[in-house]
């Protein structure tokens, strides 16, 4: 377990930041053959400039508990790609439901993104979380069970 500080936007992207001091540890996950595609559709008009990332409001995308959301790498909008889903407020753990209403959009050309346009697709994968045992605990557990 490691102590860390998560820096997040309190109110809006580009607004006030806050720090959440917490303890965390690495853990693995597996996901099966089932997933969903969600559409990231612009909820506002936004002027964009080449190579200048910008946040764009989208229609809500709900990510259920124990699910992982990843922007699809296939470009769906002529002006750019979704670099990330954005979530304002305290970070949530993967076991909680999350609702995204904003993306970070990376333009490759100047132009205007219009309300109702498809910005990209989001892959939602259902996952099983595999928490790691403390160092040495797994080996000890195995050795106790493999005794003859």
Task: From the structure above, extract its key features.
10 strands, mainly beta, globular, three-stranded antiparallel beta sheet, 1 helix, 148 residues
Secondary structure: elements and pairs:
Blueprint: E1 2-9, E2 17-24, E3 27-41, E4 46-48, E5 54-63, E6 67-71, E7 80-86, E8 98-107, E9 111-113, E10 118-131, H1 137-145
Antiparallel strand pairs: 1-2, 3-10, 4-9, 5-8, 6-10, 7-8
Describe this structure in words.
With 148 residues, the protein is mainly β. The protein has a domain at 29-131. The protein has one helix at 137-145, and strands spanning 2-9, 17-24, 27-41, 46-48, 54-63, 67-71, 80-86, 98-107, 111-113, 118-131. The chain is built from one helix and ten strands, in the order E-E-E-E-E-E-E-E-E-E-H.
Entry summary:
Helices cover 6% and strands 56% of the residues.
Strand order of the largest sheet: 3-10-6
Distance between the termini: 34 Å
Strand count, sense and barrel status of the largest sheet are: 3 strands, antiparallel
Number of helices: 1
Structural class: mainly beta
